[in-house]
Amino acid sequence: MPGPSSTAFIFELLCRGGVRRLHEMQVHGRSRFGPLWKARFGPVLTVHVADPALVAQVLRQEGPEPRRALSCPWKEHRSLRGVPGGLLTLEGEAWRGSRRVLARGLLRPGAAEAFAGPVAAVVAELVARLQRLRRQHPRGIVPDIGTEFNRFGLEAISWVLFSSRLGCLGDTGEAAEDVIRCVGAVLALTLVTMALPRPLLRLVPAPWDAFCHAWDQLFAFAKGHVDRRVAEVAARGSPAEGDTCVTDLLAREHVPISSIYGNVTELLLAGVDTVASTLAWSLYELARNPGAQAALHRELLAATATNRDTRGDSATPDRATAAATATALARLPLLRAVVKETLRLYPVIPANARVVPNCDIRVGDYLVPRQTLITLCHYATSRDSRFFPAPDAFRPERWLRHGDSGDTPGDTPGDTPGDTPGHPPGPGHPFASLPFGLGPRSCVGRRLAELQLHMALAQILLRFEVRPEPGGGRVRPMTRTLLAPAAPISLRFLEQ
């Protein structure tokens, strides 16, 4: 199997900033070595897979309990601190049990709509904050919208996980800053602590110490809110109708309290940056593509004219209205296409790791031994010109088809409102873009993320026309575990 020498690979990672350019290295690796290549970092051999058909081949052989990696610093932190992992770090039967419980509460059809009321309330606060911020600037510019969307993501996920209101989107919102900093530190330091050899980390312990401190702070934050919620529910007997959260879901299933801490802490980390960066990239691309933005605005106005629930208002909607709004938005084809195209260009997780523990598997013309780390290069496959003409261009219409509906690749046909069973996806291969993964290890929060994205984009674009910051340059992505903007995104918000 082709691939770079160990020396060249390590030099690229550590001396040429490759740790922050792992997404670009996928594209360069495919161009140089083809769709399948190997690379060795110290004792770890990694097989990179950058072709949709080969990605499908791996996923179809991963078994019922696929592993993400041989080892990772997140697991090392759990072991060092003696705290249980959650869905992102557990393996085997422990992972299967957590996955089963959380999937019932978050992935079944209609499950996300149970959280539509809280999400709608947070969206209303976000829109009001954007309005205040744009009025503070003579040209209506909101600087660094990623920071604002991080506040939104933390406020929304805290309500979903613990039924906690933090006030992140108020005039101060200082309470959010420490948590957001810790999330950012974990994501920024994960790749550093993975890339640096252990002897070097012992000599220069600052990155590892900072990484562990950030996780400790997140666990402490989550534990405090879980304990508050559990005590609150115990005091009054049971939550009021319609008032539920993930902590309640796990407690009803008699999940041990230590496991609740582990699961909600990892979901907390997963729920902040993921939604925030996708919202920022969506508005960034819509601002640079006014025709697409205008078409989406027309779609939203038309839906408003025929369905009052889609509009909403600045007041907090009741839960039934919010759920109806969420269902209506999920049926708007261009809104869904915008989110899909954003996630194609900027997949939150640019690569997934898999380890098939029990058997050798065939990938293309090669036999990959058991226990080999396999990297699925989603960034490279989602920018493959064979399946996406003009792959670097933002073209939401590529996801539209006859009947203006469409499954995300990897969907079960018809499993999302608005999907049409039997229609093939717009791209040329269903595994070319997998922003939420596929199979047993797919994103358990997918429906919740889509709910937040659809509701936030709809309300923002009904109220504002979004334009690029005058004189602002092109913003490129960088890898910091997740794919994130390499520079702050600032945009101009004009009243519609």
In short:
This protein is α+β, with helices and mostly antiparallel strands and 496 residues long. It is built from 18 helices and eleven strands. The protein has a four-stranded mixed beta sheet.
Biggest sheet descriptor: 4 strands, mixed
Number of strands: 11
Which outline best applies? globular
What is the straight-line distance between the termini? 56 Å
Please state roughly what percent of the residues sit in beta strands, choosing from under 5%, 5-15%, 15-25%, 25-35%, 35-45% or over 45%. Answer: 5-15%
Q: Supply the number of helical segments.
A: 18
Secondary-structure element sequence?
A: HHEEHHHHEHHHHHHHHHHEEEEHHEEEE
Counting helices, strands and paired strands, the structural category is alpha+beta
- Physical arrangement of strands within the biggest beta sheet: 1-2-7-4
| Contiguous uncertain segments of 5+ residues | 405-425
Query: What share of the residues lie within helices?
Result: 40-55%
Please state the CA-atom Rg, rounded to the nearest Å: 22 Å
The chain-level mean pLDDT equals 88
Give the helices and strands, then pairings.
Blueprint: H1 6-15, H2 22-33, E1 36-41, E2 44-49, H3 52-59, H4 73-81, H5 92-106, H6 116-135, E3 141-142, H7 145-162, H8 174-195, H9 198-203, H10 206-236, H11 246-252, H12 257-288, H13 290-306, H14 308-311, H15 319-329, H16 333-345, E4 352-355, E5 361-363, E6 366-368, E7 373-376, H17 378-382, H18 446-463, E8 464-468, E9 477-480, E10 482-485, E11 491-495
Parallel strand pairs: 2-7
Antiparallel strand pairs: 1-2, 3-11, 4-7, 5-6, 8-11, 9-10
Helix pairs in contact: 6-7, 6-15, 6-18, 7-8, 7-12, 8-10, 10-12, 12-16, 12-18
